[in-house]
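Lab notebook, bench 4. The sequencing result for the construct came back, and we need a structural model before the next group meeting so we can plan mutations. Quick request posted to the team channel:

Model the 3D structure of this chain.
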Amino acid sequence: MMLLKLVNEMPMEPDVGIWTSLLSSCRIHGETDLGEKFAEKLLELGPDKAENYVLVSNLFAGSGNWDDVRTVRGEMRELGLRKDIGRSWIQIGGKTYNFAVGDRMLHESEEIQEMWRRLEEKISHIGYKNSIQVQCFMN
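Done. Here's the predicted structure in token form:
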């Protein structure tokens, strides 16, 4: 594997950022076996970071490995790690709104959802593909 050779021949020791990038690339390109090797390295360097476990879980979810997804989520629970809630910002009519997935607290929620739907429609024309399994990670 050329990528493993490249990593092994780097003049410095790969850090969390390198392993995170490599693992994310494996998820995107469906390289689960290689991603598992990178996941091991990532978790060695950052065993107390929830986001590392989320990336590993997403790798398995992307390939339909639901048993491994459950295992990784179980490890997170055992370690007391929780994923931070994802938040989004959108500006409508000069006003900025901050919200989480499923947030219906704002009285402008329907307008925000409509704007979001239009944005997704526009960016899908330039190649954006929504990745449901990544968005659906739950603690």
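The CA atoms of residues 53 and 76 lie 7 Å apart.
Will bring this to the meeting.
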